[in-house]
Each structure stands twice: as structure tokens, then as C-alpha cells.
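BUG: 3D viewer hangs when loading the predicted structure for this chain

Environment: internal workstation, default settings.
Expected: structure renders.
Actual: progress bar stalls at 90%.

Input used:
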Amino acid sequence: MPTPPYRRRVSRSAVATLGAAGLVALGAAPAAVGDEPPPSLALGDIKPITGVKPGSPVDLPVTVVNNGTTTVDKVWIKYTATRGLAFPEVPSNCVKQYVGAYDEMPERWIAICAFDQAVKPGVAYTPQKPFAVKAEKHAFDDEMWVGVTDYEPSPDENSTPVPGTAPEIELIESPAGGTGSADRFRVPVTSVNTADYEVTGAALRGKPGDTVTMKVTFTNTGPGWVWSKPGTPWTSVVVTLPAGTSVVKPDFYCKVKGKVYDCGLTTRPQEHLETATFTFKLKIDKKVAGAKGSVALSNRKLPFDPDKSNDTAPITLEVAGGEPGGTGGTAGGSDGGSGSTGGSSGGSTGSTGSTGSTGGSSGSTGGSSSTGGAGTATTGGNLATTGSSSATLPIAGAAAAAVVMGAGTILVVRRRRARHDGDGFSGR
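C-alpha cells produced before the viewer hung:
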């Protein structure tokens, strides 16, 4: 599959805001109906689908009704599905399109089917063969949108549609009749599946005065993907640093909260086989006997994740030389607030790591940092957060603000390019 255009890690509140806006764009928010008559072309009600077994077909009943007074010469039905669903056999009178994730919205499949036949007033029609939909092995909390129009919907501009190869299907009159109430429906499709969230810690070593690189990770090992939308149980990654250390540079996406760092997740790593890596620069201030930190999920009450054994992991510290000191060290150095600011201005790495089955690439890294893998000591380099020059902070802060404003501009521009053609995903 094509690589999604870009991905971004944001805070929980930001994702909730974007998710709400995204659902409005999807059409999930009901429009004001009032006393308006139903559209001339409409669909019969499609109920939510539950209890689907991953790997099995999904029964999607579709009925088209002409509520008008004149015959419609040609109609189009558009199907759109989130990433846990697939269209394995697309008829030759349809086109199929894969669209990667963007604007914090998930990847999806689109199929547009043309029926070059008359649809008479007051008559209900059904496809002679149901459109084939399959639940993938990573299906979990998915959605489909089905829409009908008397004009050809525009494809998404981010990929090229491919003609179907299965035998053509037609619309046939439904003996049971039926009524149509709306020209598109959002159909929740829930599969019986689980998702295993896991974190990994780090083993650090060095001597007092050294600066070491610490990398901790979050991975959804699947099999189910998790769509981070309003109402979905949320978690972040909480990092507790070993005693005797202080932060030189935190990960850009990790903010100090008391004596710990809270690291936000993108929508992407919560899918499946995707990894988010959080990178810190730590200074070893002194040797503390038995010093140990941890990385853990902030929310371990996730109904879809039955395995809690990998929700926490240790961060160990081995200090060579020096005499054991007291408890020493805090999560944010001597000034926790400055530790958070240092992350924003320093632009440390916050990339997503290994790619998933969808072909996602690793995220970008921001700013420069001293080299060395987890537990590798480096000397000199970055100043500790509390020792940064005050003259450089306003400049760095302005740069960070510019980046945020730029990201917002991209988001607005891309959404303005969205189309509204017969499904709730509106060009996603």
C-alpha cells in the first residue's frame, strides 16, 4: 500500500479536538433535518453491524429507493471503509481506491459503483449480488459509509482509482419493496478482537557527569487496530527517571508532570505493529544505590487489552565510579518546568519506529542531539535544561510557535481540499 502522507504525534486534548472535527467531516454528526422531505434518491436503513469475526465476510444490506416523481437514468453507490475492512472483489462497473491516513484521520478504502439503468419512482432496488466486504485480521472498531447519488462522485485526490475486475453487478427490483430515508448512512462495524499495548524500558550506564541517551517505546502488537476517536479509551506513556539523573533534553512529545514525564501518542502507533519511540538526554549527576526508573501506560484499564504483563517496563542505571549518594535526581532536573520547555525548543526525536503492515514510514526527527544509543555515555554537548542561556529561550520558543502555526495551516488547507461526494469521509 502507499505510504500515508505524514503522521503527527499530538496531545490527548488535541486528538480529541481533531477527532471531533474529523467526525463532523465524516458526517457522523447528524445534520438538522427539520421538515425537509427525504432526498429523491435514498437508501433503506442500514443497522450497526456487531460480533464480526476477523477474516470473515461482512453482510452489508443495501436498498436504493427513488422517492421522487421522475425516473432516474443512472445512479452511483459509494462505499467507504476504515482500515480494518477490505473490498476483496470489486465488480467491473466499480472503481477501487486506497487512501492513506492524513489530518489525524485513518486510512480507508473507497469503491464507487456505477449502475447505468433506470430507477423508477416508488420502486426499491438492491444489488443482484451484495457488495463484498471482508473484516481483516486487524479489524476491531471500524466504520463504513454508504451513499447513493444521481451524479458521479469525485474520487479522493490523494490516490488513483483502479477498475474492478469481478463480474459486473446490476440493480434489481426488490420484491419486498422498502423505503428510503437518507442518501447516506454511517454504519459502525464492530469485530470481536483484541489489541495488545506494550512498552519497553532501557538499560543505562555511565559515570557521574556523563550525558546518556535513553530511548523507551510504545507498540500496539495487535492484532486489532485502535482508532483514536472520541469515546475510545485513551492512554499515554508515563516515564519515571532513575534517581541520580536529571534531564538535559526531554523528548519533544513528553511534558513534565510532577516527578514524571507524560508522553503523548499519535493515532498511528495505536493501530497495530506500529512503534512510537521517545528519546531523552539524561545527565548522570551521582551514583545512587539501586537507582531504577520505569515506563508505563497511564491507563491500564483498556477493555481491548487483556494482557497487562507488558504494560510496564524498568529503566535501569549502572553507574561506574563515584560513591553512592542520596536519593538525588528529579524527573525534570532542578526545574521541572524548564525541562518541558527544553523539549519544545530542542526538538528532540519523537519519531515512530518500525513500520506496520500498512507501509507506514518512520516519523521525522526534529533538531540535533548528541549521538549514541540507549545507555551510551556522551560528554559535553547539550547544556542541562536548568543551565540554558536565557537569551536563546525566546528565540527557540518563537520557532516552536511557528512550527505549531505551520502545522495548523497545513491541517486547515488539507481539510479545505476535502470533497463531499456521497459519503461521510469527505475526501479523506
